[in-house]
Amino acid sequence: MDHLWTPWRSTYMKEKRDRSGCVFCLAGAATNDEDTLVVFRGRLNFVILNRYPYTSGHLMIAPYRHVSRLQQVDDETSAEMMRLVRASERLIEETYQPQGINIGMNLGEAAGAGIEQHIHMHVLPRWFGDANFMTSVSHTRIIPEELSVTWSKLSQAFAKASLV
What is the pLDDT of residues 111-152, one digit of tens each? Predict the structure, then answer.
């Protein structure tokens, strides 16, 4: 039997168990965006990197307000969220030139939400072959870029974009 070393997975599981607060509320309230991986702050929502991404460039858009269902946000918040989703799509395409993009939201643990208490929309680039045998056979992801590099690229792309 071959063994694959994936230390990030144990960190993720420990954080999931030991969570002392909502990861999105904590990031939304924090001031050091590089540490929290926030790449853009809107008035009602913010864009943050997934700390445990499926692929490089995996973004999430979350409202500052702590809600577990999309129907619990007002129209202005959902409209800004969709504007940020569209901007994220464009900036990911410009930055990473993916062959496709996944956009989606999982509401509730049964639907696959890793953090079911606070809604967030995923926007992530995809390439043919990025779901290779490593994911299928050993439940391991190969991420070719450090999060600090991804944060730098995407925070700069958002800063240059006119999203106001």
Answer: 888 888 999 999 999 988 776 444 544 455 556 688 999 999
Pull the structure tokens for residue 6.
Answer: 């994936």
CB atoms within 10 A of CB 101: 17
Taking only the tens place, the pLDDT of each residue in 54-98 is 888 999 999 999 999 999 999 999 999 999 999 999 999 999 999
120 is catalytic: yes
Of the candidates 124, 162, 148, 143, the one whose C-alpha atom is nearest the C-alpha of residue 32 is 148
In a domain, 139, yes or no: yes
Task: Please check whether residue 117 is in contact with residue 52, taking contact to mean a CB–CB distance below 8 angstroms.
Answer: no
Domain count, the chain: 1
What pTM was computed for the model? 0.83
Q: What is the CATH number of the domain that holds 42?
A: 3.30.428.10
Q: Quick count: other Cβ atoms within 10 Å of Cβ 107? A: 14
Select which of 58, 118, 120, 122 is catalytic: 120
**Residue 32 half-sphere exposure toward CB, CA atoms < 13 A:** 3
